[in-house]
Amino acid sequence: MKISGAPCYWGVDDPKxxxxxxxxxxxxxxxxxxxxxxxxxPYGYVPMDVKRVQAELSKHDLTIIAGTIFxxxxxxxxxxxxxxQVDDICSLITKLPRSPLKDEIPFPPPYLVIIDWGxxxxxxxxxxxxxxxxxxxxxxxxxxxxxxxxxxxxxxRYRVRPVIHPHAGGYIEFEDEIKKLLKDIPxxxxxxxxxxxxxxxxxxxxxxxxxxxxDRLDYLHFKDIDPDMYQQMMxxxxxxxxxxxxxxxxxxxxxxxxxxSIYSLLKEINYRGYITxxxxxxxxxxxxxxxxxxxxxxxxxxxxx
Length: 305
Hints:
By secondary structure, the chain is of the alpha/beta class. It has one domain (2-302): Divalent-metal-dependent TIM barrel enzymes (TIM Barrel), CATH 3.20.20.150. It has helices at residues 23-33, 50-59, 79-93, 120-123, 137-158, 175-184, 196-201, 206-212, 227-234, 240-245, 259-268, 289-302, and strands at residues 2-4, 37-42, 63-71, 111-116, 161-164, 191-195, 217-222, 224-225, 249-250, 274-277. Helix 6 (175-184) links the parallel strand 5 (161-164) and strand 6.
């Protein structure tokens, strides 16, 4: 198992947020923290300039683990824009320094992480499976067709493995939706990127889901959740990233998720891929990101990762 990082540790989730740190700072601090691989972050944060990004990664001895589609996967009118994002992201990540895991796992990085996002009616009900509106069968089928089209574009044109990430606040979040996704999108089309923090946030047991989906897992995200803050947020009508800005996510090992058990489980199912550790937060607090990242890395290494 290999540990990598992502810009969300520095509060980078919305590329239009005026408080984001420079991407060069994120790469520098990721390297200082001890990562040897990192995700690009949301489309539009890191420039689509191969030479600039390649030079910065090389300077910090970093490889690229994934790029991300983080957008509305439901609307028909959005599909052409999404396909353009696939082309931009995959054209970039396939030209950047790659992971050394090339021949050790069936689908080595870089990955294209595909996340549905951008629906206010779901964002305010993140973490509440009993309250959140579900898509109609017609709209669900459209989203599945769109995911398949993005996945096929990434693989057929660029040989980039697509992985679908269930995400709090999107239309693929809860137990029933993930089960439906696994039925409708075959593993040949796209793998799965499960996120321990999002699973817990959305009322699921991360360890159980990792076990149940072992044969579909290509990539993992680790987060941790502050239990007191989580209970407070569940009592409010609040958007997911606003809850993150208030501190619902915390350094790994400081929260409620049992990573000792997860380590044992991943050894048992022989997971040998990448694990990206994250902590979604307000970018205005990123002065402490490096310290928090180091705490998380030290913790997961101390328990065996």
